[in-house]
Write a structure and sequence with these properties.
Blueprint: H1 30-49, E1 53-54, E2 60-62, H2 73-76, E3 79-83, E4 86-90, H3 95-104, E5 113-117, E6 120-122, E7 134-143, H4 149-164, E8 172-178, H5 179-187, H6 198-205, H7 208-211, H8 213-221, H9 231-241, H10 246-252, H11 258-272, E9 279-281, E10 295-301, E11 310-314, H12 318-321, E12 329-335, H13 336-345, E13 356-362, H14 368-380, E14 385-387, H15 394-403, E15 406-412, H16 414-419, E16 421-426, E17 432-436
Parallel strand pairs: 1-5, 8-9, 13-14, 13-15
Antiparallel strand pairs: 2-4, 3-4, 5-7, 6-7, 7-12, 8-10, 10-11, 11-12, 15-16, 16-17
Helix pairs in contact: 1-4, 4-11, 8-9
Length: 439
């Protein structure tokens, strides 16, 4: 879309639409932001425990970084525009930006990198429960480690976060697959002559849970599509996706399959972390982005009533697409909207009242300077203070202080100021005391 023209000076009545947040976005009032900050603090604390450092990148990015030619939905969901001959977009995800950052300092970075971020992302997609057009997500990425020990560490961090948030052990299950295993199998069968269509095939079968088997078969067999399989081959692909046991996959994969050995090793490592009962093999997990190359995983609530809580996998060739050297990488994105829905459903969202140490109230403008000195001294002592502005009635000030969760109220009337004192009332016990007004 083109850049909008500058608004005029029309002073007519404003319609209701501009007074509301755009569909799929959110306003964060103080109580909402307290919950968001609480969640983000858990993201950061978990990342710190696992030795990750925080990064960020611009919300606005060159659109080309996100536009790939494998039929990904994300390309059609971009918020993008042209301004001064530059094609720009609001980022739909941060992983390509991280790849750009790695490429920019590739020679100076010490691998492996352990980076995390909490980016705001934008996608113009159909909304549903837990799905918004604007959301934040916790990203954890490891660059420079080719072994599945990196995947195991990331999946363990997901479980650590879920435990910190107070969810029960069985509330969320991580389902794991290997795109490399699927690719090995299909390259020796239905894709023997057309291996280049594998990324597009993964994007099509990632829609299985949304549109059903018959619709996916139609996507795979569409002669005008990117895959164009015969119907029987498309059905074979669907049969592989129904596998839910590694032992069953072993019957189909070749005996010396590197991908099979890799996913088997991953399950062993997750067992060592103590989470074997919280994972499962699921051949239908493929992820809808073309750059994934190996292990992929998604976390779902036990009832599968919500979309994925988080998802990720290995993307060893992403840096090469930007002109950089081959660099192994793996990561995940954990959205704020879905976990908030699940925590609410499980009654695990905390009550987070406003936190305020003191309210300082001058009865009139004559006591204002003394009230300022009291507030200044309290703030110098690193205490949060609301200095009451104007001259509201004491009854209202007391009610507001109680509602704000203030611990004390400091009262300065003409008699107190004449004595050089401030009257302090403890709002929990009701006890009162006087102290000198600070000079």
């Amino acid at each position: 879309m083109e850049a909008p023209s500058q608004p005029g000076c029309d002073t007519g009545p404003v319609s209701k639409e501009p007074l509301q947040a755009p569909r799929g976005t959110r306003d964060f009032y103080p109580e909402d932001l307290r919950l968001r900050n609480w969640l983000f603090e858990h993201f950061r604390a978990t990342a710190a425990l696992f030795g990750f450092e925080e990064i960020d990148a611009p919300v606005l990015e060159h659109a080309e970084l996100f536009i790939r030619k494998a039929g990904e939905e994300i390309v059609d969901q971009l918020y993008h525009f042209t301004l001064h001959d530059r094609h720009l977009a609001l980022r739909p995800e941060i992983t390509p930006q991280i790849a750009r950052m790695v490429a920019a300092r590739r020679g100076a970075l010490r691998l492996p990198l352990r980076w995390f971020s909490i980016p705001q992302c934008w996608r113009y997609e159909r909304m549903s429960r837990g799905r918004r057009r604007e959301h934040y997500q916790w990203n954890m990425d490891i660059w420079g480690e080719p072994g599945v020990a990196a995947e195991a560490e990331l999946i363990a961090s997901v479980f650590h976060l879920l435990d910190r948030l107070g969810l029960e052990r069985g509330d969320v299950m991580v389902r794991i697959n290997s795109r490399a295993l699927l690719e090995e199998t299909l390259r020796e069968t239905v894709l023997a002559k057309r291996p280049e269509v594998f990324p597009a095939l993964c994007i099509a079968i990632d829609k299985l849970g949304k549109i059903g088997e018959d619709a996916v078969v139609e996507l795979l067999r569409d002669p005008k599509g990117l895959v164009g399989l015969p119907v029987e081959d498309a059905r074979f692909v669907l049969s592989f996706l129904k596998l839910r046991d590694i032992a069953e996959a072993q019957k189909i994969a070749r005996a010396d399959s590197p991908a099979l050995a890799e996913i088997t090793r991953l399950f062993e490592l997750i067992d060592a972390y103590g989470h074997a009962d919280r994972i499962a093999f699921d051949a239908s997990i493929v992820r809808g982005l073309a750059y994934y190359t190996g292990i992929v995983f998604e976390a779902f609530d036990s009832g599968r009533e919500l979309r994925a809580v988080c998802g990720g996998g290995r993307y060893d060739h992403l840096l090469e697409t930007l002109g950089g050297p081959a660099t192994p990488a793996v990561g995940f994105g954990f959205g704020d909207s879905v976990i908030a829905e699940l925590l609410s459903e499980k009654k695990r969202l905390p009550e987070l009242p406003r936190s305020l140490d003191a309210v300082v109230y001058a009865f009139s403008e004559a006591e204002r300077a003394a009230a300022v000195r009291v507030a200044r001294a309290l703030r110098a002592d690193n205490r949060s203070v609301e200095l009451v502005l104007g001259e509201p009635r004491l009854k209202r000030v007391m009610a507001d202080a109680d509602r704000a969760g203030a611990r004390e109220i400091h009262l300065l009337g003409p008699d107190e100021v004449a004595r050089g004192e401030v009257l302090i009332r403890d709002l929990t016990s009701g006890e009162q005391r006087s102290e000198p007004i600070p000079e």
